[in-house]
Design a protein that fits this description.
The protein is mainly alpha-helical and about 130 residues long. The protein has one domain. Strands 1-2 form a two-stranded antiparallel sheet. Strand 1 and strand 2 form a beta hairpin.
């Protein structure tokens, strides 16, 4: 899924930002039309729903196990999203590069280091939960 997500973002960047994509704040997405932006928001919600569905269908055990599978899947997806963006676009050039992290409920902007770090922490928490509940 990270491959698919990053491919979509690569296409959007080729179409809307052919000279390169530089995030300087939440207005970075202002060049994207409202209809396309709404589709992007829907894609983000669908990704979260897909990750939740995978965790509900694959986790055995109770609520904690399902939560652990969800946060593990989210962490892996998010890290590989950035890996694939780097493979496709050579972006981000470094972990301090600003990015639009999410559009829901409004654009979130932060250095790439933040979601990668949070994803690593989420994966560690998931492992701890599964060890404790396993």
């Amino acid at each position: 899924m990270a491959y698919v997500e990053s491919a979509v973002v690569a296409y959007l960047r080729f179409l809307y930002y052919p000279d390169g994509f530089l995030v300087e704040g939440v207005h970075a997405v202002s060049d994207i039309s409202g209809a396309v932006l709404n589709i992007e928001i829907g894609r983000e919600v669908a990704t979260i729903a897909m990750l939740a569905a995978v965790s509900l269908l694959t986790a055995r055990g109770g609520w904690w196990s399902r939560l652990a599978f969800f946060i593990w899947a989210f962490g892996v997806w998010d890290i590989f999203y950035y890996i694939w963006l780097y493979v496709f676009l050579g972006w981000p050039p470094d972990l301090l590069t600003l990015d639009v992290l999410f559009l829901v409920p409004r654009p979130w902007v932060a250095p790439v280091l933040l979601p990668v770090t949070v994803s690593g922490i989420m994966m560690a928490c998931a492992a701890a939960i599964l060890k404790r509940t396993g």
